[in-house]
Amino acid sequence: MNDHTPQGEHDSTPVPLNQGHVQGTGGIPERFENPGLPPHVHRASDTDEQAAKRAERTIAGLFGLSMLGTVLFLVAYFMVDVDEMTFVPGIGDMSLSNLLLGLGLALALLGIGLGAVQWAKTLMPDEEVVEMRHPMRSSDEAREGFVQTILDGGESSQLTRRPLIKATLGGALGLFSLPLLVQLAGSLGPLPRNDLSVTFWNGEKGEDGTWTAMQRRLHLDPEDRPIKASDVTIGSVFHVLPEGLQSELHGAEKLNEITKASVLVMRLNPDEFQDTPQGRKARDWGYQGIVAYSKVCTHVGCPVGLYEQTTHHLLCPCHQSTFDVTNDCEVIFGPAGRPLPQLKIGVDAQGYLIAEQSFQEPVGPSFWERES
């Protein structure tokens, strides 16, 4: 269109055919010519069986490298102590187990990836094809043709003719699944057994490993001082631990017991507990409306620390599991599968809150041996 063409009108100059268009009017091509496909260039493996054999051995070697990486991963996982350290230039000291696990997984992935790329570039068909459009529902003949195309593809990829590739690829993929299964099963750790059933609230642990029942006072965390029932007003929330835990234990054992024995204490009007078996149990295990529940969420063990006074709900901030304090902390929302375990409390002669009985069930996340 030139500068003197009125707006809305088109230049009627035909489009030259040497520009790859079919001539149209108004300067707009009627359609484009099919440019066709470039001539196919044969690879060495297409015409030379020896080159194809070399490519096959290369691919098999890469898949073999993947298998070696997987074996290295398994050996490192089962035989190398995670605390054993080694020096790596540019990094410094690091766990030998982590180093070997990373190298093994990297080799396993690299071998499969490079082997697949090499296979596609040297032995699989590399000719470009054109597929014409067709109705969404293919005819029966087309479907049968598709099945035959798949079979022909398997034949043309030489998978059936190259058993070495088929065997090493199967070995690489099969072995590569083992680290995933090992990591999934082994990294879950041992079953908790009674580790979550016994807490510092159970009493004193003797030299023989048994626990002697005793009534412990509820101590504020972290002040480590006892709390009286009169200190707990309606709407208030206290984070408490068993008496003696912070002074009698040390190190990892202390941290472990703090994690299991942490408790939330709050006070409700006794009339606000629901008239259900759970609600009556919550009231009976408390003292004048004061109740105490495990602070460890029964979903994945996050600390439950948010209390809504108006609704009497406890909320876990990690995944929004919500527990109803008026109904023995039953789950009313979220992924938690069980109520929070309740601690049975009372008062001693001086008016201090004490634990009359430990939790009826294990604290923390649910697990398949929990009932036992």
Automatic annotation (TrEMBL):
The keyword Cell membrane applies. GO terms for cellular component: plasma membrane. InterPro entries: QcrA_N (IPR045603), Rieske_2Fe-2S (IPR017941), Rieske_2Fe-2S_sf (IPR036922), Rieske_Fe-S_prot (IPR014349). PROSITE patterns: RIESKE. Keywords: 2Fe-2S, Cell membrane, Disulfide bond, Electron transport, Iron, Iron-sulfur, Membrane, Metal-binding, Oxidoreductase, Respiratory chain, Transmembrane, Transmembrane helix, Transport. The keyword Iron applies. Iron-sulfur subunit of the cytochrome bc1 complex, an essential component of the respiratory electron transport chain required for ATP synthesis. The bc1 complex catalyzes the oxidation of menaquinol and the reduction of cytochrome c in the respiratory chain. The bc1 complex operates through a Q-cycle mechanism that couples electron transfer to generation of the proton gradient that drives ATP synthesis. This is Cytochrome bc1 complex Rieske iron-sulfur subunit. It comes from Marihabitans asiaticum. The lineage of its organism: Bacteria, Bacillati, Actinomycetota, Actinomycetes, Micrococcales.
